[in-house]
Every structure is written in C-alpha cells, then in structure tokens.
Write the structure tokens for this entry.
Amino acid sequence: MTPVTKRFGILTSGGDCPGLNAAIRGVCRAAYDKYGMVGVGFADGYRGLINGDYRVLKREDFWGILTRGGTILGSSREKPFKNIGSDYDIVDEKVSAIKENYHELKLDCLVVLGGNGAHSTAYKLAQEGLNVVGLPKTIDNDVQGTERCFGFHSALSIATEAIDRLHTTAQSHNRAMVIELMGHKAGWLALYAGVAGGGDVVLIPEIPYDIKTIGDHLKKRLQEGKGFSIVVVAEGAMSCKEAAMDKKARKRQRENVSIGYRVAGEIKCETNIETRTTVLGYVQRGGVPSASDRALATSLGVAAADLLAYGKYNRMVCLSNDRVTSVDLSVPAGKTRTVPRNHYMIDAALAVGACLGR
Ligand code: F6P
C-alpha cells in the first residue's frame, strides 16, 4: 500500500525508562521496512522540536537498541504550552517554532513517546493543526487510556528485587525497613512491588495513611513474634493530615525531607521499633528493559507505524483487554490514571495481610 505518512518526526519526552529504545525501534523498523517511510529524530523531547535540533534517522540508528536502556534521542521535561510567569509571548514563540520546524521538515506526523505531560502537549499540538501519534511511556504506569505503559514492568522488577534484599537485612536486625519508590501521583509501582515483594505496609498516594493504624499493625506483628517488617512507600504517599491541606501548603510541608524518611521517623515515634530507610530513586528508571517491556514497547511501536500508514492521526496507541489498539489523544491529555480503591491488587494486598495505612 502507499502509506498516507511519508515522513514523520519522533521524540521522547519526560522521565526516561527502560523500553524507550525498544519502542523507537518498533516504530522505525515497521515504518521504514513495511511502509518505506523516513523518520526525523528530535533531540531531548519537545526542546529539540522547538530548536530544530534533529537528525534524519538511518536504519543503523535503530539497529541494536532493543535492549538498551534510556533513549537514543535524549529527553527533557520541556512543556511548550506552559507559561513562565505572565510572559505569554514565550509560549507563542515556542509553538510557532514547533509549527515552523514541522512544516519546514515536511513532516506528515509527529510521534511522541511520553507520559501524562507529553500527551497533554501532543493533544494541544493536534489542536494547533499538527498530526500527532502518541505512545504511553512511564515507570509510574499512570497514563490514562492504557492498561500498561512500557517502563512499568522493568521498574517493578527492579523494585521487587530491592525489596527481596531488604527482607534479609530487616530480619537480621529486627528492623522496620522503609523503601521509598517512585510514583508521584499514582501508586501503581509501590502497590505492585509491595505485593510482589511481600510488603507488610504499602502506602500509596491514593490512600492517605494514619500512622496509628500503621503502628498498631507493626506492634501486632511484634506480638506474633515477627520482629521485622517491610514498609513500601510511594514518593507521593501522604498522611491524612497532609491530604487535608491545600496543594501549596502540602508542597511546603514536604519540601525538606522525603516521605520514606518521614514515615520511618513516625514509625519510630509510634512504636519504638528501630527503622531504616532506602530511597530507590533513579535505579528504577535505569538499565536494560525487561522482556515484557521489550515486547510491549515493540508491539505499541508497530501499532503506531500502522496508524501513521493509514493516516489515523491524533491517537495514542494503548493496551486494552490485552489487545493493542488506540484511543483519541484527548483521553490521556491532562489526566492521571490513579489506583481505584476497588482494584484487585488492593484486594490482594489486604487479603495477604498487608496494611495500606487506613
Ligand atoms: O515520571 C516518572 C518519574 O520517575 C516519577 O516517578 C518521578 O517522580 C519523576 O519522574 C522524577 O522526575 P525527574 O526525572 O525530572 O527528576
């Protein structure tokens, strides 16, 4: 068939994750080999599109990158539509530069690999008249419209292995070991890793915690002769008191010490149990993608190439009922997919005796 798209731009935006290069490879190998298209790679997310920092991709650019972590294109958190102060001219300049580069390079469509923020920008660019296709990426797994984002499974494996290792040192010292995982607005990673790693307490942003409930749970474990505990905390988890604050006050309150250390201190005060904290941080975003993420990223990439070929623009490829399909860009734009209270993984955590803080 003669594809509707001849030339496409491609960029990776937001926090990097394992699987990005697998997805780039999926898009490009299908687009080049199945449809004879040409790709233009932009450096460092939307910043490269604004500044015209690009290179026309050759086949060797996306050979041998299936297992490579990070992104060969680079990434940034550039948000072209975000006003800096009251200076609205900057937004106009950035958006004009994007349109100019898009048309000067004779692009038929822009492929965006990113999370919530990236898809919000993608949707706004579509409203400005560009053709855009999105792929859902983030270790947080919180992009609305897809059951899974690539990056999540790799981070889940990394976090679970870390939790496994904490069990032995916690038991050796009769401590409550707190591990802080990524997940600012949604607790998918902490919840799944908490269940997979046998966490005794799992705290996620969606369920504000009461330290007394946690203390009672840990003291009960002590009475049952379990001298150690594993406490898994999402970086966005918050106490009931914090949940009642307005956003700005909560941000100020959380500025100086990360939640993992805060929860450890509260546990010590509440129970006098010795605690230690591990903040796993960017290790969760690094290294080789898991097999599952490589397969998901490749299948989403190929599906994106098909959307390009048939001119089905302004959509995000997604996983739905274990099928690769697509949704309108308005679905992920500006939204966060949080853990619903009735999710089966919450039921599973409770059923095996984990405390979720309430
Ligand atoms: O978006 C994924 C994520 O890893 C979040 O879990 C984390 O809070 C954030 O990125 C860190 O952002 P940055 O890489 O800009 O420090």
Q: What stands out?
A: The chain has two domains: 7-150+289-328, 155-285. The longest strand covers residues 7-12. The chain is about 40% helix and 15% strand.
